[in-house]
Amino acid sequence: MSSRKGQKGAARVVREQLAREQRRRRTIWVSVAAVAVLVIAGLVGWSVYTSQRSDDFTPPTGSNEAGTGVVAGSGPVTVDVYADFLCPACKQFEQAAGPTLDQLISDGGVRVVYHPVAYLDRFSTTGYSTRSSAASGCAAEGGRYRPYAKALFERQPPEGGAGLSDDELVDIAAATGIDRDGFASCLREGTFKPWTEHVTEEASKAGITGTPTILVDGRPVADRSPEGIRAAVEAAGR
Amino acid sequence: MIVTAPPARAARWPAVRPWLGVAVRLGLAAVWLFAGGSKVGDLAASGRAVNAYQVMPYDLAMVIGAALPFVELALGLLLLLGLATRLTAGVSAALLVVFVVGIVSAWSRGLAIDCGCFGSGGQLPEGQAPSYLPEILRDLGFLALAGFLLIWPRTPVSVDGWLTGDAPVEDDDE
User: Fold this and answer.
1) Minimum distance, in Å, between the CA of residue A130 and any CA atom of chain B
2) What is the pLDDT of residues A27-63, one digit of tens each?
3) What is the ipTM of this complex?
4) Engineering a disulfide at B39: which of A230, B46, B79, B157 sits with its beta carbon 3.0 to 4.6 angstroms away?
5) What is the DSSP-derived secondary structure letter of residue A235?
6) B29 at the A interface (CB within 8 A)?
7) Residue B75 at interface with chain A, using a CB cutoff of 8 Å
8) In whole angstroms, what is the distance from residue A116 CA to residue A198 CA?
9) Contact between residue A120 and residue A160 where contact means Cβ atoms under 8 Å apart
10) Cβ separation of B122 and A210 shorter than 8 Å?
11) Concatenated DSSP letters for A174-234?
12) Which stretches does DSSP call E strand in chain B?
């Protein structure tokens, strides 16, 4: 009697052990699968990012040697201006200190490199930062970067919307004296989109994390008022 | 979930917990799906947001920034399905700890950046103060959700429960 009861008990223990073992194995496989899903997701992100990057870019005429910006002037002091056409603070800077920089350029005191970075693509529904920067490349190709950039800031669309349409970008170009058809085909073909990407990536690599950023001979300028810019240039020229 | 006429205070918790667990699981899933979804459209910007913390070389930051949104989406999907919930909760908790440490370190180094938790990211415009404390508190709240699922991974309406085929209330030994 008692031995049969013991047998029954032992069988139950074995069954439970087997069930537990099976459950354990299932948990392991589910965990392995979940980890695989996470790792694959990460690799997908990496490869998508890599495939999005374009290697070849053509800088527009008037670019600096590294192809990271458009040069104006040839003075002894170099001023780097990093701006996004969608950034409100960049518009303020352009309207407040832009004329000062123009004056310094024509006085022969500075060489300004304009870097039209596309940092704020997520703040418009159409990637306006990239589109406007690439458009400014088309304008630079026609030797009209500065007037076009000024006009873009003047007509700056609000953040969060669709930005200016391609047609509007072309109209602005025509209004600033750029050949309409040449500009329109340059814009439609995305000729300078890889350049915009290069400008943005190099700025990011250089530690430019926000816009606008102004460097005078490589040093960031905290006071971006006309007086601040003038003072920084004078200090660097000494 | 409304529990009608609870017989006793002690008996209420076992009845409520599974459904609270579902809410927590789906809540954390929503957090990850939203966080990943807001970044996945501009991977380069996501990389720049990571780079703005200035804790790793640029190229590594860009790779991490590109991978992160997809990992977040995968975590969200796994939680939504309730597959490998404890492991997913553990990975979530680990990621959130890393995020909190990152924000604290940015704060202590005096950087003025947006955490980039749900899109945006990078350096803040002049005159805008960073909101590190709310960001940290929010992440700690998410960490509490992950902690709940680490302790009680079994929830109803989950693939885990379906695979094991038994009631979600018993056996917390996995």
Assistant:
1) 12
2) 899 999 999 999 999 999 999 999 988 778 999 999 9
3) 0.87
4) B46
5) H
6) no
7) yes
8) 10
9) no
10) yes
11) HHTT--HHHHHHHHHTTTTHHHHHHHHHHHHHTT--SSSEEEETTEEPS--SHHHHHHHHH
12) 113-114, 122-123
